[in-house]
Amino acid sequence: MKQGKKAGAKKGTWTNGKPPFPYYYDKNTRSVLVDETKRPIYRAIVEKYLNGTNLGHIAIWLTDNKIPTPYNIKPDEKNKGWSNITVQRLLASEIHLGYITYGKTRSKRGKVELVPEKERIKVMGTHEKLKTPEEHEVIMERLLKNRMLNPNSRRNIFPLSGLLYCQKCGSRMRFRVGENKKQGQHWSALCYHQYKDGSKCEQRGKVMDADFFNALYDRIIHVDPNILQEIELYGSRYNDTQVIIEVKEQELKKQKRALDKLHESYEEDMITKQVFLERKAVRSRQIQKLEEELKNLRKVVVDEGNYPTAEQIYERIGEFRELWSSSVTSEEKNRALKKLVERIVYNREGNRVELTVCYR
């Protein structure tokens, strides 16, 4: 049986049991196929990671959206959702590149050991590829960098994970765990951004103590008046744009009716062909211009319509306060923040730290 699997692997056929998400094994065709209901989920995972979302946030997103985990849950076990390591293994898998690998481990004197890569069977399989070599290279490079960080920094256990951004350079800030006799174990926010000329961002870090979080909480629940003014401005623009759209739509209908009448006049020999063509050209240009203007205005309406209203923000603040007060773990606090906050912009000048809250 082992020889049969080995021979099958050399031909590029699947011989390793259950294939990884989003593939499944079709017994009728004896081939590995893509589950079309899971394909977009897998691609979303890849694209989110390539766009900077970390493993923990992807795991939260999958769990929150009730995406079933790739592994089977026993009836008496509780499904705890996706984990960082599950997402990492999925991203690092070469199966999605199209490869079939056989013989990764072997049993020697009752112990299981890894087989050196050069001794394994690795061939291009017959199944569909779901990521490109370029995507895989970027993914592996980022995963390798993440391994160089402190393990606690990668567990998504910090409340501000994925939310804190540097005002000086715009990069997402990272967190470092430290320990001393006075404070014990503590976290610091740091900007590691490096510019193309090799210089580093001059942003200064800050220890995240109780005072920092009390100030942050206070800033979140008391909306900055400047933000409220900006929200009102967006609301006013939205209403103005809607009015302009209505005017443009009426003008477009008017021009189209005029063009229809022009065709009728020509068909009834009320005007010459030359006059018809000249007037038609003018009407057509006006119609095209109005349609382009309406297209752009509708895009603006979509963008402005997605901007939250003051009422929505205050409603979310109420929900946030309830979630935050009942949160015990850092991960629960992180989820509470993400229900309300898009990002928090950090800037330190001397001993003063300024935090700008951007609401969802």
Automatic annotation (TrEMBL):
Ranges in coiled-coil conformation: 245-307
Keywords, comma-separated and alphabetical: Coiled coil, DNA recombination, DNA-binding
Classification via InterPro entries: DNA_bind_recomb_sf, DNA_bind_recombinase_dom, SSR_resolvase, Zn_ribbon_recom_dom
GO terms for MF: DNA binding; DNA strand exchange activity
A Pfam cross-reference name: Recombinase
Organism domain of life: Bacteria
Signal peptide location: none
Domain Recombinase: 22-149
PANTHER family, alphabetized: DNA-INVERTASE FROM LAMBDOID PROPHAGE, SERINE RECOMBINASE PINE-RELATED
Name of the protein in question: Resolvase
